[in-house]
Known about the structure:
Chain A is α+β, with helices and mostly antiparallel strands and 544 residues long. Chain A is 37% helix and 17% strand.
Amino acid sequence: MYSYDHYDQAMVDARVAEFRDQTRRRIEGTLSEEKFRPLRLQNGLYLQLHAYMLRVAVPYGTLSSAQMKVLGDIADKYDRGYGHFTTRQNIQYNWIKLEDTPDILADLAKVEMHAIQTSGNCIRNISSDQYAGATPDEIIDPRPYAELLRQWSSFHPEFLALPRKFKICVIASDTDRAAMKLHDIGIQMVKNDAGEVGCAFYVGGGMGRTPFIAPQIKAFVPLDQLITYAEACLRVYNRYGRRDNKYKARIKILVHELGLDEYSRQVEEEFAHLLNQDIEPPLAELERIKAHFADPAFEQGLSDDLDLSNPKFARWVKANTAPHKVPGYTIATISLKPVGGIPGDASADQIRLMADLAKDYSFDELRVTHAQNIVLPHVKKADLFVLWEKLVAADLATANLNAITDIIACPGLDYCSLANARSIPVAQKISQRFTDNGKEETLGELKLKISGCINACGHHHAGHIGILGVDRKGTENYQLLLGGSEGADTSLGQITGPGFNEDGIVDAIDKVTDFYLAERQEGERFLDTYRRLGMAPFKEVIYG
Amino acid sequence: MADPQFLFRDEAASAPAVALSAFGEDTNATAVRIEPGEDARALLPHLDRLSLVEVTFPAFTDGRGFSSARILREAGYTGELRATGDIGVDMLSHLRRVGFDAIAPATPLDPAEAETAFNTWPEVYQATVVDGRKPIWALRHGL
């Protein structure tokens, strides 16, 4: 994976010094909260309901075990012994003190980490496929391109006061595991007819209160024009994105209001101009970065045989592992969705244990997934049983990847100052109900996502089943959505009808899943049955 | 018109800046002011007669002026490029990077803090071309 040279280290160190100074000025009172706010946000520091929250960047979701270990230590030293992995592959801490923050950033910098641009109206941490570099279904490892974009977008002087936040995702597989088309810019690495690698650009996707699936704006941008093209997309947005209404300020609204053709025309014009400005890093820089992502020293000729005589182990293997590109290896996902737990939470001890396991069994590497789980990307099948036993002992062996209990949930009203309703208790109830009644395994793949307000941090639009918490006359109310997806077949869920209270929403999900089990045809997932039958019969079983 | 608190050229322009809307009719004007919603490219046919372009930042959270500045420098404008308005100390390094060579904050900034701020970045990741700094990728590859 990528490691800093002295330039990268100096930039991150400079950022820590800058923020230390800003924090000092804030505490001394020479910097007002109004002026400080965008500065702290661009260092990942939010003011939540009860305390500051710090969001630490995990670029494209990739971590070393030394980095993971420090994340655990920070949870102990500065928080209450927990960390929360997020839908943008980052980690956040919910009980942070302002005066500690510069020291936390300094601790992070020692292991080549930071909280740069994890919030605020700027280009955010670049996300990617959690199986990058390990999966057989990618055309190339997408992370070097994400790293190139990370450096370009860090402290880009023109794009630090954008109309709104800006999220970029880079993938290299048709199997989209990163919700690429729901980003401000989604990039898919592709090959053209000549076999050359380039980038397909999708612009203007997003969730929030007005969800859009990003349309493709350019089918092939050559690698030696990648930064220039991205810069053109951003410049048009910075100049013409709406600033009169923060709810209409994302690039998706600009693309929608101008129309794809007009936005695209403006980008092309800017692109043609910028091509003459000599702003593109040379391909040698990409080659330098790519060398960091070379395969680890996989053993060759290993067997794919696995003893599955232990039924619990067999179930975990079936649910939580995915094919690896090298024979004898597998990709193992550690679920952070224990029954009745808080989705994405891990204790400091669990975080350190996962770091150790990565060191012993996965070439020192971990990934954070947008579904708030942790991946060990390169596990030898011969080691898998021992690994699983260690996960079991740490309560990390829940076998529910992509099941109805593998819930994405935002922090909700328990932590977030924007929320209208709690998300976590609903997730806990669903997880408990569908484990107790045994339906979880029968249902197979069923992606359930919960947001505590229309900002949609819990991706409810993209859930096969989505739940949206709203405030109805002072009480928490939950709307049900069906038919969303964040995969290669991205679609947006539709609201079924009137909302429910906390128990009512769990009952409603019980009903729609019963209906699915009764109606499903061979091989159909919940989503497939819903797409075949449409909303009406599902509505009938809920409200009829 | 505020005199710049920070100047990175020999002397500040003295001509009063006219609004962009008036500039088109006033063929003698040599100084112009552009607001965030105005298109800096409207000035491109007139660059050779301009000695001052003032770019306003009515709110420090509105970053359109950064693009305006860079567009003018990319087009070869060499006169004074002055940032005015709601400018905090933490914007200074970025203003320099997009080509401003004069900065006139509405509220004067602490000189020592400003000095630190201008020197925030040991190196830079991007080629903005207009600030004369070699980006890190160029240094890495001896370009």
